[in-house]
Amino acid sequence: MSNNSIPGKFAHIVYFWLKNPNSEEDKKTFKTSLINFISNSIFIKTKHLGTPASTNREVIDSTYSYNLSLTFESKEIQDKYQVEEGHMQFIEESSKLWKKVVVYDSENILNQ
User: Fold this and answer.
1) 69 with 102: CB under 8 angstroms?
2) Which of 29, 39, 67, 110 has its CA 20 to 30 A from that of 22?
3) What are phi and psi for residue 36, nearest 5 degrees?
4) 98: closest CA among 24, 37, 30, 25?
5) Rounded to an integer, what distance in angstroms lies between the CA atom of residue 84 and that of residue 109?
6) Domain total of the chain
7) CATH label of the domain that carries residue 31
């Protein structure tokens, strides 16, 4: 098996649906808060912040506003991220902007 897997043994994938997805002000506030947080986190190994791609297949859900994909060295490190001051500040600043959040966590089984 190739050894080009994503760094980190734990992935944390978050999808956000904003209450007002067409509001430029809400999008700016959300992105600024989130980018500030993930740029200063001491626990995140890799990060990706995105919006729905311009793909169109039956299996694709592109109804979300933003996707955050993070990896961590381990579940234990991700647990520390959950209570990190910046994470708590992001939630406080931005939770009023979203109507729905869905999280998918997984542990890497490659190279076990």
Assistant:
1) no
2) 39
3) -60, -45
4) 30
5) 26
6) 1
7) 3.30.70.100
